[in-house]
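User: Hey, my collaborator sent me this sequence without any context and asked if I could get a structure. I don't really work with proteins. Can you help?
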Amino acid sequence: MTHVLILGGTAEARDLAAHLVAQGVPVTSSLAGRVSRPRLPEGPVRVGGFGGVGGLAAWLTEHDVTAVVDATHPFAGTMGNHAAQACSRLGLPLLRLARPGWQDHPDAGDWTWVTDHVAARDVADALGGTPFVTTGRQTLHHHTGAWAGREVVVRLVEPPADPLPAAWTVLRSRGPYDVAGERELMRTHGIGVLLTKDSGGRYTEAKLAAARDLGVPVVVVSRPPRPEGVTAVEDATAAAAWVASLG
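Assistant: No problem. I've predicted the 3D structure and written it out in structure-token form, which is a compact way to encode the shape of the chain:
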């Protein structure tokens, strides 16, 4: 019998789990455990890492997994690489499920695209003004030293793992956001430049429109490369069809 492992925590992963549960397909969703109160998908859930490629391969074998869907965040590159290696080792089919990025956004040509967070910081320094950092708490170590005495606005879902500079303003919230609210936030805090990453999706897209409306420059960190040769789809319906095609 088919047993699908969904590597996720994303909205797309939850959508796929709901599709498969409704179809009676045995499925287990795996969450990294980095969020204290995650939105749980339907069906069985496991939380935490696997212990590298070997640990993942062992788990897949022990639980008779017949297919894997990598629906992790677009920037969860390590897990994606581990999944590709483990599935190749075991001869298991692997699908990549990821929301489209913002490369085709109408304003994408007006943004500054960079390959890493240090480059994003350098661009922000050149532009000046108060940075609005929306790249997630795991990226903040790239900025804390260089911007220790600078006004910085950071938005996080979870509290920071380490103390942040006293000059920084930390906003705690979870999307989705609307354009009017994002405009008001940027006006209130005098934002001079928006730092984001190419997460894609609609939950956090409103900040891009707000930045355009206010003339705030946008710096975008591009997605990291993913393993080559892995079939990819952009929504849960297509992913469910792929699972069904396996027989």
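In plain terms: The chain has seven helices and twelve strands. You can pass these tokens on to your collaborator as they are.
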